[in-house]
C-alpha cells in the first residue's frame, strides 16, 4: 500500500493528527530507512478489563502493525502508584505493587485478542521512572511551568473553584510524557481527553533531544449509560472478555442515539453499511433491530459468528417470544458477590420486605430469565443481562 493510502487508512476515525503532515513524514522516513515506527499507547493500571472504548486505539495499533510497525504498550505501574488525576475532580486510587502485577497479567491475556504478539512490546514505566534520582526528577519538572499545567481544564476548573490540587497530580502527566522519551516513540495514540498529555510528550521529548512524536487522538465512546465516557471507574463498560450473553445484554441497553456511533467505533462494519442503517433509523425503523445487528457484530469480533447467532436466539427467546417489554429498568450489582435472593429483592426496593419476597417465591411470582425460583434460600450470582421478574408486570435487568 502506498504512503497516501496508508495515511488515509490510519487517519480514518481519528479526531486529531498533529502536527499536520507529521504522519506522512514519519511514514516516508520509515519506508526509506526500513525501520518500523514505534507507536505508543499507555494502559491504565487501575483495572483488568479492556472494554470497547479502549479497544478503539488498540485496533488502530493493530492497523499500524499490519503496515509493519511496532506497538509499544506502556503499562503504568509507576504512574499507577501515583494516581491519575481525572475529569471527576479527584485522583484514581493509588495501587499497590501486587494490584499492578495482577492487573498486568490480566491485560496480557486480553490485548493479544487484538494485537499481534510478535510486533508488540509491553513495557512497565517503572523500568525507567523507578531509577530516576531526585535530581533527575527536578530536571524533569523544570521542563514545564505551573501556568502551562493549569491550562488543562480539570486543573484550571479545580483551581478556580478552590478544590485542592496535590503536587503529585502535576507529576503524573510529566512522568507519562517522560515515557515517550524512554521508549523513543514516533507516534502516540490516545483519547481526545488525553490530548494535553500527548502534546506534553512531544515537548518533553524535544527538551531531551529526542525527535518529537506525532499524536493521534481517537473519539471517546460513551458507555452503556449514554452519558459518560465508557470507563471501568463508572461501571458503564462492555469488556471484550465478557460472555456473549453479557455483551448482548449490555449492548441492547445502550440508548438508541448511540447505535451508529457504536457501529462506527466499536465494529469493523463497512462505512456504506453503517450509512444505510443510519438512513433506516432516521426513517423510523425499530432501533431494537439494529441493536441486535450491533450486538452480533461485537460478539463476532471477540468470540465467533456462532456465538453471536446463539446470543441472538437467546435474546429472542427471552424478550421477543416471551413478550417482555423493550425498555426494562436496570439495576447494577457487584458481579463478584453472591446475594440471597429474598434480601436482594428488598435491597433493590422491589418488595417491601424479605417476608414479602418469600411469599412471592412461594406463589411462583419471582422468576430469573423466565424460570420461576422455588427455593426461599436461593443464592443469586449476578450475570449482566439477566432479567428478574417480580409478579406479572415488574421486570429488572441486571447490569
Query: According to CATH, what is the topology of the largest domain?
Result: Rossmann fold
CATH superfamily of the largest domain: HUPs
CATH class of the largest domain: Alpha Beta
Enumerate the spans where pLDDT stays under 50 for 5 or more consecutive residues.
87-91
The class by helix and strand makeup works out as alpha/beta
List the helices and strands and how they pair.
Blueprint: H1 3-11, E1 16-18, H2 22-33, E2 38-43, H3 52-66, E3 70-75, H4 77-82, H5 97-111, E4 120-124, H6 126-129, H7 134-141, H8 146-149, H9 153-161, H10 167-183, E5 187-191, H11 195-207, E6 214-218, H12 244-252, H13 259-266, H14 271-282, H15 287-302, H16 305-320, E7 329-331, E8 339-340, H17 341-347, H18 354-362, E9 366-368, E10 371-372, E11 379-380, E12 387-390, E13 394-398
Parallel strand pairs: 2-3, 2-5, 3-4, 5-6, 7-13
Antiparallel strand pairs: 1-6, 8-11, 9-10, 9-12, 12-13
Helix pairs in contact: 10-11, 12-15, 12-16, 13-15, 15-16, 17-18
Write up this protein.
With 399 residues, the chain is α/β, with parallel strands linked by helices. The chain folds into 3 domains: 3-218, Rossmann fold, CATH 3.40.50; 244-320, Orthogonal Bundle (Tyrosyl-Transfer RNA Synthetase), CATH 1.10.240; 329-398, Structural Genomics Hypothetical 15.5 Kd Protein In mrcA-pckA Intergenic Region, Chain A (Roll), CATH 3.10.290. It has 18 helices and 13 strands. It has helices at 3-11, 22-33, 52-66, 77-82, 97-111, 126-129, 134-141, 146-149, 153-161, 167-183, 195-207, 244-252, 259-266, 271-282, 287-302, 305-320, 341-347, 354-362, and strands spanning 16-18, 38-43, 70-75, 120-124, 187-191, 214-218, 329-331, 339-340, 366-368, 371-372, 379-380, 387-390, 394-398. The chain has a 6-stranded mixed beta sheet with strand order 1-6-5-2-3-4, with helices on both faces. It has a 5-stranded mixed beta sheet with strand order 7-13-12-9-10. Strand 12 and strand 13 form a beta hairpin. Helix 12 (244-252) crosses helix 16, helix 13 runs parallel beside helix 15 (287-302) and helix 15 (287-302) runs antiparallel to helix 16. The longest helix has 17 residues, at 167-183. The protein is globular, with a radius of gyration of 24 Å. The model is unreliable at 87-91 (pLDDT under 50). A motif ('KMSKS' region) lies at residues 229-233. This is Tyrosine--tRNA ligase. Keywords: Aminoacyl-tRNA synthetase, ATP-binding, Cytoplasm, Ligase, Nucleotide-binding, Protein biosynthesis, RNA-binding. ATP binds at residue 232. It comes from candidate division WOR-3 bacterium.
Amino acid at each position: 500500500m502506498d504512503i497516501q493510502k496508508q495515511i488515509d487508512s490510519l487517519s480514518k476515525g481519528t479526531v486529531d493528527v498533529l502536527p499536520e503532515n507529521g504522519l506522512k513524514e514519519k511514514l516516508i522516513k520509515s519506508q526509506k530507512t526500513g525501520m518500523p515506527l514505534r507507536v505508543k499507547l499507555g494502559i491504565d493500571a487501575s483495572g483488568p478489563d479492556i472494554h470497547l472504548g479502549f479497544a478503539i486505539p488498540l485496533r488502530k495499533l493493530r492497523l499500524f502493525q499490519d503496515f509493519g510497525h511496532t506497538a509499544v504498550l506502556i503499562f503504568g505501574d509507576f504512574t499507577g502508584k501515583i494516581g491519575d488525576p481525572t475529569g471527576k475532580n479527584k485522583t484514581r486510587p493509588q495501587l499497590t505493587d501486587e494490584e499492578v502485577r495482577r492487573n498486568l497479567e490480566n491485560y496480557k491475556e486480553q490485548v493479544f485478542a487484538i494485537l499481534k504478539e510478535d510486533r508488540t512490546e509491553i513495557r512497565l514505566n517503572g523500568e525507567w521512572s523507578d531509577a530516576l534520582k531526585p535530581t533527575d526528577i527536578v530536571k524533569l519538572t523544570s521542563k514545564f511551568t505551573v501556568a502551562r499545567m493549569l491550562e488543562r481544564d480539570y486543573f484550571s476548573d479545580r483551581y478556580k473553584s478552590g478544590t485542592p490540587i496535590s503536587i503529585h497530580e502535576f507529576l503524573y502527566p510529566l512522568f507519562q510524557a517522560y515515557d515517550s522519551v524512554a521508549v523513543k516513540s514516533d507516534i502516540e495514540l490516545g483519547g481526545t481527553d488525553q490530548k494535553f498529555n500527548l502534546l506534553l510528550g512531544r515537548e518533553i521529548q524535544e527538551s531531551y533531544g529526542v525527535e518529537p512524536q506525532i499524536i493521534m487522538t481517537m473519539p471517546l465512546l460513551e458507555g452503556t449509560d449514554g452519558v459518560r465516557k465508557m470507563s471501568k471507574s463508572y461501571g458503564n463498560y462492555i469488556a471484550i472478555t465478557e460472555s456473549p450473553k453479557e455483551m448482548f445484554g449490555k449492548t441492547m441497553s445502550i440508548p438508541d442515539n448511540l447505535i451508529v456511533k457504536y457501529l462506527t467505533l466499536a465494529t469493523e462494519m463497512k462505512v456504506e453499511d453503517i450509512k444505510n442503517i443510519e438512513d433506516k433509523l432516521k426513517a423510523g425503523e425499530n432501533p431494537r433491530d439494529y441493536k441486535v445487528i450491533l450486538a452480533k457484530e461485537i460478539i463476532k469480533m471477540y468470540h465467533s459468528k456462532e456465538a453471536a447467532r446463539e446470543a441472538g436466539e437467546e435474546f429472542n427467546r427471552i424478550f421477543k417470544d416471551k413478550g417482555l417489554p423493550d425498555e426494562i429498568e436496570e439495576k447494577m450489582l457487584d458481579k463478584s458477590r453472591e446475594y440471597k435472593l429474598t434480601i436482594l429483592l428488598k435491597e433493590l426496593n422491589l418488595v417491601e420486605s424479605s417476608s414479602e419476597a418469600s411469599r412471592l417465591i412461594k406463589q411462583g411470582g419471582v422468576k430469573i430469565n423466565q424460570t420461576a425460583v422455588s427455593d426461599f434460600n436461593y443464592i443469586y450470582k449476578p450475570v449482566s443481562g439477566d432479567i428478574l421478574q417480580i409478579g406479572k408486570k415488574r421486570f429488572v435487568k441486571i447490569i
